[in-house]
Structures are given as structure tokens and as C-alpha cells.
Structures
1.
Amino acid sequence: MIAVSQLFQLLFPSHITLLTSTCRELGLIDKGGNLHLNCTAINLFSYLFDCVNYSYEFGELSNSQKQAIITLIEKKGKDKRLIKNWRPISLINVDAKIISKLLAKRLEKVLPNLIHPNQNAFVKGRSIFDAIRTIDDIVDYTKRNSWSGILISIDFEKKPLIH
């Protein structure tokens, strides 16, 4: 095994901190600080680093990174004749997925401080079930205080298409 700092000092002397944190986020560095890569992985990592630099320098992803193929996948055990039993999936460029994952991992550390506490879903440490609990608490509170009110529940699956 090779120490991360030794490998990156040789290959990318001016980018050691970024590369080390990226490899750690991808799970390529063990607790002892050793990097687990072979020559092919090093070449791929070098290519990925060039892609990230391109995106940073030009302020956008390359053309191939912005392309996707959208296809449908059936839900197992469901009637294939009904469109609701299919789900879309986007097949995108692998380096774009890795860049996206790296950004997401870095953002998840600060998002809870930026997003209002009422936003319950899709933030690490929060759950959609918190919203359900809040609704239940409000209903209970209004009953105890004999307040009248209206609760509206919207099912987005049944939302009409707007043309």
C-alpha cells in the first residue's frame, strides 16, 4: 500500500488537499490513511480530476456530462399495461454522477443550516415523518382548544396535466 500524501505529491503536487478529501469521500482511503487504487484506477482518477477542473474553469459541465438517456423501468409484480407501474430512470455520464455525488456529500454538511427547519424531507437528519407528526400535533392542538379549521391534503399523483 502507498500513503495518500506520497502518491498525490508525485502525481498532483498542487492539489493534495482536494484529492485526499475526494478519495476519502469516495471511500478509497482506509482509516490508516492508505489509498486502495491500481494503475487503471489512478488513470481514471486523473481523467476525472481533469473533468472536474474543466467544469470549474468554464463554469459548466462538458457537453457529454450534460447528456442523459431517459428510459422506463417496470415495477416488479405490477401490471405492465398501466403507465403508473413504470418509473423513469436517467442514464447519465459516470463522471457527472461522481461529480454530483462529491458535491452532494460536501453540501450535506451545510444544508441543514441553510434550509428552514420546516423542510423535513431530503435533508440529512430530517424525515418526512416529522411533517406527519407536526400535522398530527396541530390537529390535536386544535381539538383540545376547540378551534375549527380545515385540513387540505393534496395527492400529487392525481394532479391533472396542464397543457
2.
Amino acid sequence: MSEETIHLYIQLTDTMTRESFVEEYNHPFLVQHVAAAPSRPARPHSRTTKIRLEDIQLELPPEPASQRENRVHAVRARRSSTPDGSVMVGRTEENDIILSSDEVSKDHARISHDPLQDLYTITDQGSTNGTSLNGERLAVGKPRNLIDGDIVSFSSADDYQFYLSPGFYDFLIKQKR
């Protein structure tokens, strides 16, 4: 699973212990935070006009955020695209995590892991609209440490919460309540 809805991961907690989940999914996760749709003000009463359905062509807007489920991205390389095993985030198919927003650059950010220190970092790759960590914009090319619960923003697109596998399992359990 590289990108799934949070609902699918929540279902896994019904059959997996924390230890078995961490063993099976021993990598971090980015959980998309879907903003609640703004409430619309009530419209004043208006008159009704009859029209024929066959005369109408509709272009449906994107699904409202309130009806979307949070997406989950596994933070792991899909292929050995980088010599150090870093996970690339961007808009194009060459990336390990693909974000479809036009505000996300083709090669937006890099998430790296230092196995000796068991430390994850994120680095902005010179993206047009920037990367933020907990609301602070990252300097291009300067890695910043990631810890459980950090909020990562790729431009002004959706926010993502970073979790290591044990923290993600705990988050999923809380979502069930």
C-alpha cells in the first residue's frame, strides 16, 4: 500500500496488534489532513424555474473535503530512484510519493533516513511554492529533522502529519473511538 485511505489502515488494527503492525509496516507515514468544507450561508427563498434536464450540461466540482477521506502515503521508496534510498515527493510519476496538486513542484521534497541514528529528515528541493514543517518554511537544501506528529505542508496544498509506524498505529486506534 503506497497511497490508501485511512479507513483501510484502521481496519487493519482490528486484526493486528501494535507489534505485528510495526513489524509488517516498518516505515513512516504521511497522513493527509482534509480540511472541513466551509459551511455555506443559507440562501434566501427564491422562485423556481422549470428547465428540461436534457438541456443541462454539468461539470461537477471536486469532491468536497468533508466527503473525502484522509489519504495515507507510505514513506518508502517505490524503486531505488536515489542512491541513498531517500523518498522523493513531487507531482510527477518519477517520485515515490505523488501529490497531484498543481502547487506541488515536479521534484518538491526529499525525505531521508539515517539508519545509524534512526532519524528522518525532510529537505525542500528548491520547490516553487516551498515546504513547511510545523508552519515554518524550510530553507532550500537544508534538511530538518522529522518526529512523530510533525505537520508537513507542500506549498499551500493539504497538510500532512508525519508518523513513525508505532505512532501511526496509536493514531489509528484513536480514530476508531
3.
Amino acid sequence: MSRERLRDMGSRGREAMVAPIRSRFRIAGKRKEPENQGGYPNPVRDADQMDSLEGYEGSGSGQRAACDPAILNVAISHGGLKVKQENVLERVYNLGRLRMAWRQVRKNAGAAGIDRMTVEEFERREDELLKLIHDKLETGTYRFKPARRKLIPKKGSSKKRKLGIPVVMDRIVSQSMNLVFEGIYSPGFTESNFGFRRGRSQHGAIKHVQRVVVDGHDWCASTDLKSFFDEIPHDLILKLIRGQIADEGLVTLVARALKAGVMVRR
């Protein structure tokens, strides 16, 4: 999957989160992962469907609503309970959350993907298409389309930056996934984490650094991982998701997104 699609999944969640979800806890022992629930087969094997498309550019050698979810206790570490959340996919395809995601996609606007459907065209069929997305996610038949590749000038360089433009429906699904992931993972982030987080900005990061300087720190290091989103192993992403989420339907959906790739004009 291209870095643009990964970034799209992680940076578009800026709408207010839905009301807190009630959760119930139960103690359980070691548990076998569910197989093929809700029409979702093996996440990596299933995602290979796009490889035969003409003009398809693969992902590289490193790739492979609110409801009342049960939360499964899977480990006891340092005196605390480590839990996994179940029924997460149901939150993604909840119609209320899909509408919230659609409002953000509409606000961001942007060009059409490979299907040439614009945001304005989607808006004219909003109810019909959101119901279609919901039904396909619920039955496990939703498939991400490759992003449309576009080259744009790179500031301060003669090189071109590769931009991936997903179709509108994929942007809505990705945004809904991001809203759900924010609620699960954000509480574990440090106070110094400002990248692609809802309600945080570069200005907030600068103020944070200023406070750190006042506390007595007198130097900092600026680092960057070259082509991070191009090189990160997809298996690692799925492993990290499984560390907190016990929902193979959701894992499969992420795997399909990672394998969607891009369409390039030859």
C-alpha cells in the first residue's frame, strides 16, 4: 500500500468522537482466533485479489457504532489487566459513524479517484451509497480500489512527489476506521505525540517544546524515517492491531486496504 493511503487512514479523523461506548469486562483464558467470521477469510491471502489488475502497482516486498462490545481479558501484566476489544468492525460500519466520516470527507473535498466519482456526485446519492458501504462492510464483501497516482511538484526540489487519490467511498471507510482507532489507541500515546492527532497541531508541538526547555532541557534531536510508509512491514501493522483488538473481520479489512495499491498511467 502507498504511503498516501496509510497517511489518509491516520490523519483525517478531526470530527468530534461519538459518545463514549459502554464496555463490559470478563476474565478469560487463552482464546483461539475466530476463523472466517462474517464472510472474512484469511486477511493476507484474500487481499491478493488486486495483483492481476492492469496498471496496478503493488505494495513492495515488505507488504503482506456505537454498540456494547465485549472486551476480552487476555493477559495480566505487572499487576494490571491487558484487554482486547471485540466487535470493533461493527463500530466501523455503524451508519452514524459512517455519516460522521462522510461529513469529514466532504469537508476535505479533494479530487476523484479511479472511478471518477466526485464528492459532489456522492452527495447526490448519499443515503443510497452510505447504505451500500454499510451492507458491504457488514457482510465482509467490501473491497478497496487502488488509489489514483498523481505526481505533484516537490517544494524546493526538481523531484515530483507521489500522491495517491483514493475513491470517495474508500476515503469514507478509512475515515470511519480512523475514528474507531483513535478511541482505542490515543489514550496510550504520550503527551509529546502531536503527529496526525485530532485536536493537535504544529503550534501545540512548539509550545510543548518551549515548556520542555523551561524545565531545563537544552537540546533536541530532529529525526525522520525515509520512506517510512513505503517500507513498514504490513505484517507488523496487523500484529500491532491484534495486540489490542480481537476482531479478525477488522484485521482483514485493514489488510485489504494495505494491499489496494495504486493505479498508474503507463
4.
Amino acid sequence: MPKKELKFFVLLIVWLLLCYPSQAQEKHKKPPTVGLVLSGGGARGFAHIGVIKVLEEEGIDVDVIGGTSMGSIVGGLYAMGYSIDTIEKIAKTQDWNHVLNDLIDRKDLGFYEKFAQETHIVSLAIKNKKVNIPPGLVYGQNVTNLLTYLTAPAYHAKDFKDLHKPFVCIATDLLSGKAIVMDTGNLAIAIRASMSVPSAFVPVKYGPYYLVDGGLVNNLPAKEVRALGADVLIGVDIQTPIFKQEEIKNLVQVLSQSIFLNAEDNFNASLKELDLLIKPDIDPFTAMDFDKADSLIARGEKKAREMIPLIRAFMDSAGIKPVNARRHINTFPEIDKIYVNKVVFVGNEKISEKYLAKNLDIHEGDQISLTELKTKIDYLYGSKLFQTIHYSLKAQPNGETTIIIELEESSLFDVSVGAHYNDYAGTGLLVNLTGRNIGVPNGRLAVDVALGKVNRFSVEYVMDNGLKPGFGMSAHHFNQFGYSYDDDGKKLISFNMNVTKTLGYALLTVNNILRYRLGYELEVNNISQNISLINFENMNNLGGILFSDILVDTYDRYYLPKEGYRLLAHASYGVGKNTDINLDDNGDVTYPVNKFSYGAISVDADAVVDLYKNFIARPSVFFYSLLGDNVPLIKTPFFGGFSHSYFHSYQPFPGYGFMEITGNQAFQMGLSFRYNFWHDHFLSAKGRILSINFDPDKSYKENQMYSGWQLTYSYYSKIGPISVSMAEAYPKKVLMFDFSLGFWF
């Protein structure tokens, strides 16, 4: 071989030897481990979802995840194996007002608790003979149970590295002020601790720690995600920015500033750890805008799409090869049924395990779904015997599961306050003391003191045993003022009625929606004169009554309900003495005392019918029939006015004054339409027709027939409904107006 060709051949071999290793190395080079870091920021964290959607579309399948606060919720679910589509659906479909408060669905409340919830504005526990102010506005019952439900498919994983993608989140120990890395244990509790905004949520007890929101010290856990093995980091910053003095204008901004201010240096240091930062433009949305999930997700997606050129450049520089990262299904196996090994109760002190087991109704060997388990927990929580009830699942070697129920009992007594105003009764204030599990199991004591133009004092003790017989006893004293009118609607007599009565009854309830009572009532009432055109002396009445009633109530809320129906049927027989007022033949006023006996039956029913989206109809019917002579005024049916009354026989009627219409027999039909035009704002139109003492032998015009209409604007506020109404009736034809605020009591 010539020297020239030999030289060329040697050079070719050397070149191939030098190039091949680098090409082989390039071909087999391990792709970088990609970490995703999600900051906290309350509702603004919904923007994380939009960002992840775009990252997946670009072919980035992150390997490890970390988050703080809201970032821990999105990150934890994503690390578990939830598809981003499913997480988006969860964000958009949750009733966040319910989740982030300790609200109890009315269907889950004990029968007697339903009405108390829609009477009181504020309730505080009494502990050690003092009113106790809780360490947070919300104990987190609903949010913890939602997180437990969502994370249940991963309950086998006690180390978060064993999730579909390794995960870590951050909480702050309120006792030491240190950041606590949450990477083992109960995933739901770890996320709940990471999102516990101080003062808003009660801190989480976790071993030796008392945990609150991780954003206080580390709102962007970049180093912690790097420690999971990430080679490159993508960070999403949705934190509320630090405000200048002139920008702080409301409580949300003050709270946000106080949470994130001390962590600002740590946050800036974490930003330097990132290889790619995505910071969505979220203003003017705040950390409290949980009802704006759609818009916030869109903001995150918009920013990420604007950054696609930078994202692709980052992928090239980091050596990230696009993959088919977009998933539309979850990667974990769904839990169909739990095979129950046993149920363990933790934290109960005053309440026996026997009571808990009976009411939870889950037994060894049962098969139960997560939805059924949540329903039973909610039902038990509705007794209001517990501050919180949470559950966790523990896998057993035989494939069965132990359900651990962790309880924090409520105090024996609560003190509550309510307030209202309407044009009839003026301003009223209610102070209530309620004791639960008092005297006997399921014993409930309630003491009310209502002060105002219409005063009331009542004591009620009830033992509600559900379908097993229970009992109740109560004593009431109240004053109710009213009027007597002439044929033209002019007030002739203004009177005040003081009523004292005691009741005792046997009791059955079914599923917290039906109550049946059979009992007695002893009643004394005194009618005295106020300002009046006719002078009269005080009149006293004394009576004893046997009664039976049934109440069925499935409304989702008593005021402005959106679904359900209500039926009250009542029958009674009474005897006693009644002082009446008469004019003798000489025109003198006399006060004969007459014995009376009477029978009465009544039916009051109405329902909500969903017509279209936020538009509902509400038909109603009321029937009252009274048979007897010399019947006391308090037992006579009355109609008129806008307000409620303590009289069982009273019904509002649009366009007439309070108690202006009366008679022994009454039949009323009504139909109202209501439109929920924005949030908790409503417009309604109501029409009613009333027949008094109907005589079939008389013509329609000869009978006492009344009709009326009413238009109302209402706002369902935190302190109760606020309403402005106007009404007119026929044949009276006088336009009337009313304003009311708060729950009636």
C-alpha cells in the first residue's frame, strides 16, 4: 500500500475512534430529571393547572413535584397520578364556599340543629366556664375530608417518593417558626397543613408540631425539589406580590402581606434555583377568588402559551426530549369498595364507642365505597357533637382495610347570638345557650332569650333517638302585639298578648327530615290594651291541649331554598276558659268568662320546582279549620303582613296589615317565581289567593275572597336574608312596603 494511502487510512481510523464514543454517549445520554415547583397563593393557585396543561402539550413530563399551600394541592394530586383534566374538573365543580368553611349540609344536620343553624350569626364554645375563641375561623372539617377522599386511592403510600411522581410539600411549625418538609405520612393531612392560612384555618396537630401554611417561611420549595433528584427546575409563581402602603386597601391584602412578607428573602433565593420561571399575570384576582377557577386557569394557560418559544428553548438547552405527556385518564386504580377489617375511634373522651359505632353504622366485614363512607362521616358530624371528624385508611396484609376515625369532641355548651330587623317587629337580639349530650345520650338543651319589640324566653330539652321513641319538653313565654281592624282596614284596637305555655311530647324522627310528635300543651295568655279607639280591661285565658303533628322538611336551606319541599300537618283538641269582650243591650262593655272546647286541623305545604337554570317556581297551600265556641284569639287563623309570628295559626299575606284577616276556616293557595340573577341575589314575584269561611251556597263575590301580589329583592348574606318588598292586595288596593334583615327567631 502506498504511503499516501496508508496515511489516509490511519487518519480515518483515528477519526472514527474519536467520534464514535461521543456519538454513542450522545445517543445513550440519560435525559434530565425535571422538577416542578408550585408556589402558594390561595385561589390564584388555580393558574398552576393552566400552566401544566401547556407544559404537557409541549411534551414535558415532569418527574418530581413540590408545592406550598395551594401549590401543594395541585402538585399533590398531580403527583398522585390525577390527570390535569381531572384536576381542572375538580377545581371548576367544587362548591369552594362549602369546602373552605365548616358548613354542614342541611340534610346531614340533626333535626333540631337545622333550625338553629339558620337563626344564629355567631356561635362560640364554652370551655372551662369561659367563652372560647378558636385558633382559626375554620376548623377545616370539609376541606380535610375532601382531601382525604381525593387522596384515598394512594393510601398505601406512606412515603411520598412512592407516589406516581415523588412529591414534597412545606408547612410551618407555629411553635418554632421552622419550615417542616412533609414527605411521609398521610398525604391529605400534609396538604391540609401546607395550606392552613393562619387565623383562617385552625393549625394542624402533627406529631410534635403545630402546623400552618408553609408560605410563612418557604412559599417556593425549589431546594427541596432539587433534593428529590431534579436536574432542572420549572417554577410557577402565583404568589400575591408584596404591596406598597398605598396599595393595601382591604383585609385580604393585609392578610396576604402578613403571610408572605417574612418569607420574601427565602422566596427570592428559591427563584435563583429555577431554570425556567413562569409567572402568570393574575391581577386583579385575589387569594380569595375561589369562585373564579375558570378565569384563573385561563390566566395560567395564557401566560404559558406566550412563553412557548422560551419553553422550547429551555427544553433544547436542558436536553429535554418531547414526549407524549398529555394524559386524559388517571394513572392510579380507582377504589370501588373498601373491605372493612375494623373501625378504630381515636380522640373520643365523653362520647362512648358504642354510641359512635351505632351512629356510624360500619362493621367488620362490610364493603363500603368512599362516597358511602363520606356520607356517613357527614351524617355523624351533623349531630354537632364534634368539632372535627376525619378518617384515614390503613391497609392490612390480607387485603382488607382498617378505617381510623379521628375525633375532636365539641364542648358541652355553645353560646350563640342572632339579630334581625323588620318593619313590624323592629330590631331584635337573640342570645342562645345550647348544650348537647346533656343529661341522657342525645339530650339537647336550648335556652333562648330574645329581646326587642317582640320578646321571648324559652327553654327546650329534647332527646332525639331517631326511629326509637324519644321525648321533649319545653317552656315558653313571649309577647306578641297585634291589631283588630274595622271593615275598611282601619285599626280599632291595638293589643299586646303575653303567652306562657309548657309542652311535653313523645318524639320520633326519620333521617333528619321527618319529625312526629304526640303531646300536650298547657297555656295561659293575657291580652292587654295598647293605644286603642276602644278601651277594655285585661282578658285572661287558660287552656289545655292535646296535639299531634308531623313535619317533613327536605329544604337545602329554610330561607330562599333552591331545592326540596316542606309539609307541616297539625291536629289539636283543646279545652279551657276564655275571657271575651262584648257589648250589652245598653252599650256597656262586659267581660264574660266562657268555657271553651275546640278542634283544629291545619296543613301547610310548599315545594321548590326547578324550571330552568337559576329560575324556580314555589307552589304553596295552607288549610286551617277550627271548630268550637268561644275559642281564644291565639287559636284563630290570622293572615296579613310580611313578618313571621309565634302564633302557629298565623300566615303572612301580601297587601294586608299584620293579622288583618281572620276567620275560623281558611284556604290559601300561592305561587311564586324566583330568579337567582347573580351569586346570592334574588328577584321574586309572588301571588296568593285566600278564602275565609267559604260557603258553597254563596257566590264567589258573596264569599270572603282575597288576592295579593308581592315583588321582592333578596340578598342571602352571612347574617341572614336582606329583603325589600312591595305588595298590593284586592279588594284593599293599597300599596305596601317592607324591609327586613337577618334570620327570624
